[in-house]
Amino acid sequence: MKLFKKADIVLLLSIFIACNYYIDVDPPEVIDIIPHNRSVVIDQHPAIEIKFSETMDKAKTEEAFTITGEHQPKGHFRWNGNSIYFDLIEDLHNATVYTITIRSSAEDKSGNNLTNNVTSTFSIGSDLIKPEIIQILPSDGTFVEDLFTPILVSFSEPVQLDSVKKGFSTSPYIVGNITLENNNTTLVFTPYDPYIHGVLYSVILSTDITDIAGNRLLKEYKSLFKAGTDFNNPSLNPESTNPPDYSIGVFSEYNNSLLRLIPFTNNEGADKNSKVHLVFSKSMQRIDTQKSISISPFIDFTFTWLNDREIQINPATPFTLQQTYTINISTQAKDIAGNIMDQDYSYSFTINGSMSLPLEVEPYSNLNKHIYQMAWEEDGSGPSEIYRTLENDDIIFDDSNYTKLKLINSNLESVWILRIPFNNSANTLDTIGGIDLNSGMQSITFNTILSHNQIQAPQIWKIIIPNGHKNYIDIYLFDLEPQCYYKLSVTHGQDGIKDICNNYMVNPFLIYLNH
Which residues, 6 or more positions from 465, have their beta carbon under 8 angstroms from its beta carbon? Predict the structure, then answer.
């Protein structure tokens, strides 16, 4: 026979006790109260019963019971299973409201209390119970994302529509429509216009509201809600997000290349043909955002929304060379939640990018502008590599090196060659393609200013770009008279001479010459 050790016996006893002993820790519940809550009782001597979910401590439960009204009626307790009865020994008063209360001090046999007080209010003979509000939506202290959210009020019993229209109000005032649903127990207020984002609204329900029997609302109810759930301001600052998002900001874009513009300072290197991109930190309201944007000095432009965060500014014409523009974005811009910009923004940029440099006649020595008088090749085929520099008031030579006879319109004419050298501030004119000949032919004039014996005006035979010199213009002149004073001029501006990239001279060029 096997002998058990002392430890084994203790373990077996523990298992036996655990399997046969239950500790009740669950609170009891009130399953039903008669008369039912908010009922009208005709009998002035009604049965009063409270049914519990389990066996109760009779003494503690009886101590927790009260019935109150115009007076405190007398009676005796009796029990039947899990139900307690209060048998009245006197009639209840007609046209009176009574309330049965079981306080949370009521205990079950294990000493567990009710979770909270339980009540039932009823009236004798007629409906005298005041209506109450069970729920208000949006709930008190909440935020409303949908700015057209209806306001719902649930009453404890049917109410009268006229009284609801009188007793319902909001602050600030909201225009809308009031209806009753669910057998006149639910008020539905539908706003005609969206709530204003960020505004705190009060819903007030006064005691003007009555039930079908004419009983006024138990008390005035008030609930607060705030329109909107997103209160973060949109921004053009890439460091407004965490972590920073450097796709946010303002950019000058040309030929798929982006130049970030820094606010509140001047930005160099923008292209005349650039578009401007504004990338916000959040999705934006399009109309208000467009109204918030201005450009100074004024230019005509259109907008293109690339997505809800990015708007592109499209100038109707190229920006003016060397001009500084300023784009302003005010706090009128709003995101789709209605939040205004975190601040006003200002971005200045100058049109002087590598492909947007104005033309100029090359300065010579002491920065005076100059041209060349070109010598002819001996065979008269064109200009040689020999030249003279001409500045203001210099003389056009007539010797055989600098003039040749050419057949023009069936006449032999003496022809001179003047060359104008062009460049830009970066000395890149030859690299970017040189002069546009058509614009040069329309922009260059050669006129007489003063003459003693002029018979006829000077003529331009042809204007060409010499081989191997894309930034030069050669002007072939004839009918020059001796003792005359001439002016050579080149038109500036967008209607003047241009390079292949449509850059033009900002300032006019002219030079006076003697012959």
Answer: 434, 435, 437, 440, 472, 473, 474
